[in-house]
């Protein structure tokens, strides 16, 4: 079942509209206080479970959703998958935005995090991350990038290697896709996995940022990845990137 959600976000210069989906009211209140303290961000929707979130999102468009994993009625993984399915069905058409999802997690939920990324989340964030990291994550995702840069995110990605399924078949779709990358595209993907922004990658490789954006777009297309997070997970799965490298 595809929820009737609006199409992908367009930056209008207005405050970024944020939805908080968490079954703990005190957690939502704390997040709201931090987010609403920023002139460019505002919480416009709160929900205590996934079903309530989907109902509200159908009529109240937002730009970014902070999504808890463990909730009653419909958990964060299923809710993220339905939001993503709606975005794919919309096909980037007009209308109000389909929100990007940041999954809130803790280190003991590694497998859930991996599932959420595969369900289409644009990033993940530790629940005990500093407020400034949460705010940066919201802004980053709204710009169209996935949340890779925060140090906790890279630690989580490297930690995820221990729960990633073995990809030993060299002709698997993931390996085939990575093999189809050019040498420069592989360089860019490795730097993406290290948390480098497009500007930083351009500086590292001595090319223009616009050139980096072109490479990133081609990498995502070749890997069949929705965004940078999914591309980086593929890089880890296939061994292109190793923890600590």
UniProtKB/TrEMBL annotation:
**Coiled-coil intervals, chain numbering:** none
Q: Which InterPro entries match?
A: CheY-like_superfamily, NreC/VraR/RcsB-like_REC, Sig_transdc_resp-reg_C-effctor, Sig_transdc_resp-reg_receiver, Tscrpt_reg_LuxR_C, WalR-like
Q: Where is the HTH luxR-type domain?
A: 174-239
Q: Which residue numbers delimit the Response regulatory domain?
A: 17-142
BP-aspect Gene Ontology terms:
phosphorelay signal transduction system; regulation of DNA-templated transcription
- Report a single Gene Ontology molecular function: DNA binding
Alphabetical keyword list: DNA-binding, Phosphoprotein, Transcription, Transcription regulation
PTM-bearing positions, type 4-aspartylphosphate: 68
Protein name (record): Response regulator transcription factor
Q: Which organism is it from?
A: Cellulosimicrobium arenosum
């Amino acid at each position: 079942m595809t929820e009737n959600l609006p199409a992908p976000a367009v930056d209008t210069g207005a405050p970024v509209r944020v939805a908080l989906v968490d079954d703990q009211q005190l957690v939502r209140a704390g997040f709201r206080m931090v987010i609403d303290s920023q002139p460019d961000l505002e919480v416009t929707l709160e929900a205590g479970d996934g079903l309530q979130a989907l109902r509200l999102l159908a009529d109240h468009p937002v730009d970014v959703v902070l999504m808890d994993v463990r909730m009653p009625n419909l958990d964060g993984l299923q809710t993220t998958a339905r939001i993503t399915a709606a975005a794919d069905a919309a096909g980037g058409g007009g209308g109000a935005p389909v929100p990007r999802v940041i999954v809130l997690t803790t280190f003991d939920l590694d497998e859930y995090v991996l599932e959420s990324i595969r369900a289409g989340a644009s990033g993940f964030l530790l629940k005990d991350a500093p407020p400034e990291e949460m705010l940066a994550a919201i802004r980053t995702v709204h710009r169209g990038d996935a949340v890779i840069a925060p140090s906790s995110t890279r630690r989580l990605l490297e930690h995820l290697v221990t729960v990633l399924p073995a990809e030993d078949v060299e002709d698997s779709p993931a390996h085939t896709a990575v093999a189809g990358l050019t040498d420069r595209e592989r360089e860019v993907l490795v730097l993406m996995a290290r948390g480098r922004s497009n500007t930083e990658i351009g500086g590292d490789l001595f090319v223009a940022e616009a050139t980096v954006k072109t490479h990133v777009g081609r990498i995502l297309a070749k890997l069949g990845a929705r965004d940078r997070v999914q591309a980086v997970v593929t890089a880890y799965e296939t061994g292109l990137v190793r923890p600590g490298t």
